[in-house]
Specification:
With 257 residues, the chain is mainly α. It has a two-stranded antiparallel ribbon with strand order 1-2. A hairpin with a 4-residue loop joins strand 1 and strand 2. Helix 7 packs antiparallel against helix 8 and helix 8 runs antiparallel to helix 9. The longest helix is centred in the middle third of the chain and has 17 residues. The two termini are 30 Å apart.
């Protein structure tokens, strides 16, 4: 997509509040941007009559609002509902539109557990951590008997990251422990030790490393990350995010049907 978009429709006087990410929008272009860039978050919080009323009255697009209301009444899925909006604005080029539609159709065919995990991951990316945790829990409540261990472990891990960023270390450690039990990886171990060091006295951390038989290389890398944090603010949110965000992204695409 090109870097700049011309507004084809006058901005609304009153904004539409996108509940999922907590943002007010004033234009059709902003709505299209959200649809295209937050595809995993398209759900009933957007696809409702509040949106269609806003489009009809505030954006003065009654025909589009009528089309969307018809789709709502017909029980349309997200991939059907958003298409008229994108077409109205001409937000995407022909090739971009076809590619987006293909991705949206593919997402609609994915197992519910995968779609929910992607939604939770997107919420973490938008700093909607409480909401993300609620969605991760919904994933874990599903029947995961045929899911790969790597998928289940990634859900526990990413939920743990959300808890750490809320400074809820007890819950975070529980999540990381579960991830390690399902799929033991060095990166999961590092995340667990990092959170453990932030929340426990130094002697407890040393005992845990000995208990788990942590190798010198892993321990040195965790220690390096801990030393990089400002000593006067050992649990600064920005520093925690700096370390954890990279680890989280590594597992956001852990997708097993």
């Amino acid at each position: 997509m090109s870097g700049y978009r011309l507004c084809r429709v006058e901005p609304a006087e009153k904004p539409f509040y996108i509940e999922t990410i907590g943002v007010n929008i004033f234009t059709l272009e902003e709505l299209c941007y959200y649809i295209v860039n937050d595809m995993a978050l398209l759900d009933e919080t957007l696809m409702n009559k509040t949106l269609t009323a806003w489009i009809g009255t505030e954006l003065k697009l009654p025909e589009l609002a009528e089309t969307l209301n018809y789709l709502l009444a017909d029980g349309a899925d997200a991939d059907e509902f958003v298409i008229p909006i994108l077409k109205e604005d001409g937000y995407l080029s022909y090739n971009e539109f076809q590619n987006f539609r293909m991705l949206l159709t593919k997402q609609g065919k994915e197992p519910r557990r995968l779609r929910l995990k992607k939604k939770a991951d997107a919420l973490v990316g938008s700093d909607k951590l409480v909401g993300a945790i609620a969605v991760y829990r919904k994933v874990l409540e599903l029947d995961l008997s045929d899911a790969k261990d790597s998928f289940v472990a990634a859900v526990h891990h990413n939920m743990g990251v959300a808890f750490v960023r809320l400074f809820r270390y007890r819950e975070a450690l529980e999540c990381f422990e579960k991830a390690l039990k399902v799929t033991y990886t060095r990166e999961y171990l590092k995340t667990y030790l990092f959170a453990y060091a932030l929340s426990k006295p130094r002697d407890k951390y040393e005992e845990k490393c000995a208990e788990l038989g942590v190798d010198d290389r892993t321990r040195a890398e965790v220690e390096e990350e801990l030393r990089a944090m400002p000593p006067e603010v050992p649990v600064a949110e920005g520093e925690i995010d700096r370390y954890l965000s990279g680890l989280t992204r590594a597992y956001h695409r852990a997708a097993d049907a």
